[in-house]
Amino acid sequence: MPTTAPSDLVRRASAGIPARPATVTEATAMLLWESCRRDPDPAAFRRALACGADIDRALAAATEHRIAPLLWRAFGAADAREELGPLRSVLCGMADTFKMEALLLIPRAVALAVRPLTDAGLEPVVFKGPAVAARYPEPGLRPMEDIDLLLPRRDHARALQVLGAAGWRVIRPAGADHYDTVLAHDDVPSLVLELHYGLEGASQRVTALHPEKLWECRQPMACAGTPAFGLPLADELVVLAAHAGKPHHGFVRLAWIADLAMIVGDAAERGTPVDWDQVRAIAGKARCVTVVAAALALGGHAGVEPPPAGLFALPTGGWRGQALEQLVSVTWPLTHLDLPGYHLNYALTDAPAHRLKILLVLLASGHRVGSRARHAVSWPRRTILREGVSAI
To answer: CA–CA separation, 192 vs 145, rounded Å?
Structure first.
């Protein structure tokens, strides 16, 4: 199978007007990618529609990927909402609901979660969710299901006591492979609070991201009108990319890529562009360069200009290269289920020892690689020998 270098894919996605879609699937995917841009290109969006994009499929995918409000915005920017037909009222209603939540519910939820902790002398870091939504151009474009806070493990029990006194109740405790406690509050029943002391479960840990060291980098910020703490830009981008690509996530939501596009675009507009050398250094130390590179390659389809050449080159050869080529394709939002999760996890993992573990688990379970039958016969032995030598 010929392999196109991911860096070329990124350059094509980031350079000016996207190429004319060649298939209905590509045209449909382009509606989704254009929606994720900070500033959708009306001409490119209309071109995708003219090439036969399946609007019903795009709406279903946008709902699955948590970008329905962004799709509604893009249809508006292209002056094409009449193309929605009877779906227009459905998409409009979803967008209006999320906007009302962003204006009324989210600020209330953040205040209920953060203020009791800061009043008690704790300094929670808000990451994902409301911290990211603040960088979107309009309220309501970033749907949320939860609020994520990070505190050191030593503060976890005390934080739970404080939150309990403020009306939060535990609905799923931390423990075993859970690195957070999930809480609910009667005043904001449609949202939950996830109080983290970790970022990955022990059995799924594939990076060296250290939650307490991240917390130590915190800086003051206002989140939905409430004084809180956030991560520096470079650390935030690495954490968000690692979250999007970790096992059991595998970049299955475009909302995570839209987050990166909005954050990078917002930083540029504020005159504080991303220091990509710093991002590379943080990712290298955390052993997640490949997953960050993959996130940025996907971000290229949403208008994120690629970092300087060589900083985030993706592997292009062998079993890893096959998976990553499929991942960064323009059709990924509609074809992501075609790539087995274990294959993607293997491709995204930097540490040879972790890749070896994935292969050994596959062999122990008798897992077949699937449609790549001829390759499936030979890859485990060759790859295990290579990974085993590298891991020593």
So the answer is: 7
Whether residue 267 contacts residue 233, with contact meaning beta carbons closer than 8 Å, is answered with: yes
Helix (H, G, I), strand (E, B) or coil at 271: coil
Whether the per-residue pLDDT at 40 is higher than 50: the answer is yes
Of residues 188, 169, 172, the one with CA closest to residue 180: 172
How many Cα atoms occupy the beta-carbon half-sphere of 11 within 13 Å? 9
* Cβ atoms of 71 and 34 closer than 8 Å: no
Range list of β-strands (E), 209-322: 219-223, 226-230
Largest CA distance in the chain: 62
- Find where tokens 């394709």 sit: 329
pLDDT in tens, 173-209: 998 778 999 999 999 999 999 999 998 776 667 899 9
For the whole prediction, is pTM greater than 0.85?
A: yes
Q: CB neighbours (10 Å) of residue 335? A: 14
Predicted local distance difference test score (pLDDT) of residue 80: 98
